[in-house]
Design a protein that fits this description.
Length: 677
């Protein structure tokens, strides 16, 4: 009968024939391309009118044959916006949604040579792109969630391909993938977790490491707290491979997960990790030094006394002391001696009240871990309402006048000096001097706004010095309680980002890795949103945009009076002169030029950089943020900035993806009881 399927459906395609053909094909389950094609051409177009039994037969047959859904996806793509395309899309959606064993069946019969096609189709966005006009990425990943749950619960023998496919599925959309496949699948129950561990054990070491670092770590880093620290330790200890010694672990934001990770390492691995992190400590990077020091303290707390003695006797282990003690920053020296004392088992004599406080958690392997991990009852600390109102008012209400420094008679000499700063390199030097001399930086902030705005047509020069300027400005504090200091600081950051939008990545790096106060973080977020608005074409009165002509535009003969005379010579003195000329022809070029000039103020320069502004903030939220007692206040402002940026991003070809991600952020905010209105 199989030889006749094509000919039968070509000339006879009634309900009975279709049911008979599908029934016979289901006996052997797997179909050849010759058997699939006539069904796609003759049966799929009438899918909506098929009876329930025939629909069920068709979907079941598709669930056994991966080439069915790939060819239907191709048909849907070729048909474009034709109505028939929706029918092909609906069949593929129904297969993935209703036939829960489809993925299990495909993987069971796929050969190693065919595996790349299965991977690129289901998890490489090929099929999703064909369905994207009907479903969102959240819907698609939801179907994949059901498919993986079925596969985990029914697979008895795993192969390397299983982990490879699972990892590819996670990478389809990393933030959503972590929530859907880590939280809602593998950590949803003990049965699923044990199935995952068995699959994990069969994977290659490269895929194991990649899944651990890029997917398991971000999830645990987001949800683990003091109460669930031992849970994470227990789960990490169960993973059937040697946990990697990851030298960048100091960048993880969750100290409790760091403790769980260190507990799961062997003492030998902890010694190795200490040696790998030590070079970062010697570099004295002001934006990560506190995190590196904290990680070293955690490591030393987890090392045995013998291991610490072994490190202490190694000359290289204490080489950091000499270099760091030459630093002019007191905090750097204090951290150095604190770590050194701990390393020497307090044999080093150094009197100081300075401490690096880390949680003291006793890790215990739990016999019965409760899955899923409870994250709903994490306490949210209350924020002082008065402080909240004052800070929001201070950050959101930015209004300044571009006052001239000449008005300040007391600082006339200083003003003349600052007006002589014509190069950004001199500005960078002055910021360094001000920090060392402990003097006010307010005039430097004003000069930054003027100088950067003046050099808006020279973005290469601004870009060269922008990283250092951003680092200097973001870490400034209003030490002398000067009025409008924060407003000028915000304007300085905005001016740099507007001239060099690519540098928003540097600003975000500072935001997430530097040791900053709440106010400093709030200013960074505010500056990012205001820069986005200006690039989008909006004109905010509280953002200063001084315009300065270069000296060549003000040559001695280019005076106001001469310019006015030239203009007057070109004017018609009497309106009656026009009437006597008859028809006056007007060039459309004038209208075009006028329109162009008028539109320059509203040109959308933001579209090109929208993803750089939005995605890092959204992903950072989903990866977890914790600012202690001011957490709620910070996150309220964070959400308002994200909303402002995504509003500026429209129109954009990735706008729908951004919206989907924003919805995930808002859902997470609701879970954390953060007001989103």
């Amino acid at each position: 009968m199989k030889q006749c399927v094509s000919s039968v459906l070509d000339y006879k395609c009634d309900q009975a024939t279709i049911s008979d053909v599908l029934g016979q094909l289901l006996v052997n389950k797997v179909c050849s391309s010759d058997e699939v094609l006539p069904i796609i051409k003759n049966v799929i177009p009438i899918y909506p009118s098929l009876n329930r039994e025939s629909k069920s037969q068709l979907l079941r047959l598709c669930s056994y044959n991966y080439n069915f859904i790939t060819q239907m996806s191709e048909y849907a793509k070729e048909l474009g916006e034709k109505a028939e395309s929706a029918i092909y899309q609906d069949v593929v959606i129904d297969v993935l949604k209703l036939e829960k064993g489809s993925l299990f069946n495909y993987v069971s019969v796929v050969s190693r040579s065919e595996a790349p096609f299965l991977k690129s189709g289901l998890f490489g966005s090929k099929i999703f792109n064909a369905l994207s006009s009907r479903i969102s990425i959240v819907d698609y990943l939801g179907y994949m969630q059901t498919q993986w749950e079925y596969l985990f619960l029914h697979t008895h023998q795993y192969e390397r391909l299983h982990l490879e496919l699972f990892l590819t599925c996670l990478q389809l959309n990393v933030p959503l993938g972590i929530d859907i496949f880590i939280e809602s699948v593998i950590l949803h129950s003990h049965a699923l977790w044990n199935a995952f561990l068995e699959m994990f054990s069969k994977g290659s070491s490269i895929h194991q490491r990649r899944l651990f670092i890029h997917h398991l770590v971000p999830y645990f880093n987001k949800i683990i707290d003091a109460r669930s620290c031992s849970v994470a330790f227990t789960l990490l200890s169960q993973i059937p491979f040697t946990l990697p010694v990851y030298s960048q672990c100091f960048n993880w934001s969750n100290v409790y997960f760091k403790i769980a990770y260190l507990g799961a390492l062997s003492d030998t691995q902890r010694v190795q990790l200490f040696k790998e992190i030590l070079p970062y400590f010697e570099q004295i990077d002001s934006y990560s030094d506190d995190m590196v020091a904290e990680m070293l303290v955690l490591l030393l707390n987890h090392l045995s006394e013998d291991s610490r003695d072994e490190l202490y006797r190694d000359p290289l282990s204490l080489s950091f002391v000499t270099k760091r003690l030459h630093s002019e920053e007191r905090l750097v020296r204090e951290r150095t001696m604190f770590v050194a004392k701990l390393l020497t088992n307090n044999k080093l004599e150094y009197d100081s009240d300075f401490t690096i406080d880390v949680p003291n958690i006793k890790l215990e392997k739990q016999a019965n871990v409760t899955l899923p991990i409870s994250i709903d009852n994490i306490p949210t600390e209350k924020v002082n309402s008065t402080a909240q109102r004052d800070l929001i008012k201070q950050v959101k209400t930015i209004s300044l006048q571009d006052s001239d420094d000449e008005d300040d008679e007391d600082d006339e000499d200083d003003d003349q000096y600052f007006r002589d700063i014509l190069f950004l390199k001199d500005l960078v030097i002055e910021f360094d001097k001000a920090e060392k001399d402990d003097t006010s930086e307010l005039k430097l902030l004003k000069n930054t706004v003027k100088l950067v705005r003046q050099k808006k047509d020279f973005p290469t020069e601004v870009a060269f010095y922008s990283t250092q300027l951003l680092k200097s400005i973001t870490t400034l504090a209003n030490k002398f309680d000067e009025p409008a200091f924060e407003e000028w600081k915000t304007n300085a950051l905005v001016s740099i980002i507007v001239v060099c939008p690519d540098k928003i990545t540097v600003l975000y790096e500072i935001l997430f890795s530097a040791e900053l106060s709440l106010q400093q973080r709030m200013v960074i977020l505010t500056a990012a949103s205001l820069a986005a608005r200006e690039l989008r074409g909006f004109n905010d009165d509280f953002v200063l945009k001084p315009v300065y002509d270069f000296p060549t535009k003000r040559l001695p003969w280019d005076t106001e009076s001469r310019s006015e005379k030239l203009n007057e010579q070109g004017k018609i003195q009497d309106v009656s002169d026009i009437k006597n000329l008859g028809t006056v022809w007007r060039s459309k070029r004038l209208d075009i030029e006028k329109s162009r000039l008028n539109s320059t103020q509203n040109i959308n320069k933001f579209r090109k950089y929208a993803t750089k502004f939005f995605y890092p903030l959204a992903h950072a939220w989903l990866n977890g943020i914790d600012l202690g007692s001011f957490d709620k206040l910070f996150k309220m402002h964070y959400l308002s900035v994200l909303r402002m940026i995504i509003t500026c991003a429209n129109p954009h070809f990735e706008f729908e993806t951004m919206q989907t991600l924003m919805e995930e952020v808002l859902k997470d905010a609701i879970k954390q009881q953060i007001p989103i209105s």
